[in-house]
Amino acid sequence: MLEIESLSKRFGGLTAVNAVSASFARGTINAIIGPNGAGKTTFFNLVSGTIRPTSGRVLFDGRDVTGLRADQAARLGMARTFQTTALFDTATVLDNLIVGHRLRTRSTLVDVILGTNRLRDEERICREKARAALDFVGLSHLEARVAGDISQEERKRVAFALALSTDPTLLLLDEPAGGVNPEETDGLAQLIRKMAKSGLTVCLIEHKMDMIMNLADRILVLNYGEKIAEGTPAEIRANPAVIEAYLGTEHA
Ligand SMILES: Nc1ncnc2c1ncn2[C@@H]1O[C@H](COP(=O)(O)OP(=O)(O)OP(=O)(O)O)[C@@H](O)[C@H]1O
């Protein structure tokens, strides 16, 4: 459902992503791993439309989406989360989802700020979608809680709910388990599995190798912007180039 064709991004003299090709099948969980500075975030930004590639193409369900703006990509069914979840800490969890949904699906803030009729008509649907997303991530009980009062793991779940509220078919998760403890990491992994089971294609960046090895169907390994390996967790674990560049011998 997602085809990456020889995607490259240069920042001045530095090639952050170098001719990377990949293919992600519907309903699968795909991890992108690699050392710091390998180009993982840049790769994500290229796919989700945050930045334009220097060359290469992104095909989403057969459609060329290269260089689309993030809000256009969201409307087509791509959603992403970020390493840190920016929430309005003084607003409720539900209001964060309602506002977040609008920011993701509209190109300007004007409608939101002016509160046009069209938006008021959409309010009910938007609220229903937000509640359904909260229910899916297991946070219905927190809908009226002020976002500043929830835990890091709950913030991660809110980030998932924010992404889900736009009805995506592809979900890009940037360090979904960053900064949470091992038990909470297991809970988040279960939630990611549930998302894939529901038909979503998941693509994630994560440094927690135990989680990745148990969760991912396929792993893509970047090093200095280049794809050095791609395969199942077992194949990646046994790949000498990956062990040398990233995993180290203790993981082998
Ligand atoms: N906007 C930018 N301008 C210039 N250089 C950049 C820019 N964004 C990223 N880079 C460089 O591109 C390279 C890849 O960075 P990127 O953030 O994609 O790596 P990463 O694998 O996500 O790293 P990390 O695991 O630390 O998040 C790095 O050398 C980084 O300094």
TrEMBL record:
One example GO MF annotation: L-phenylalanine transmembrane transporter activity
**Parts forming coiled coils:** none
Q: Which GO terms describe its cellular component?
A: plasma membrane
Return the InterPro entries for the record.
Answer: AAA+_ATPase (IPR003593), ABC_AA/LPS_Transport (IPR051120), ABC_transporter-like_ATP-bd (IPR003439), BCA_ABC_TP_C (IPR032823), P-loop_NTPase (IPR027417)
Q: Which UniProt keywords apply?
A: ATP-binding, Cell membrane, Membrane, Nucleotide-binding, Transport
What domain of life does the UniProt record list for this protein's source? Bacteria
Q: Name one GO biological process term.
A: D-alanine transmembrane transport
Provide the ABC transporter domain boundaries. 2-249
Q: Which Pfam families match?
A: ABC_tran, BCA_ABC_TP_C
Name of this protein: ABC transporter ATP-binding protein
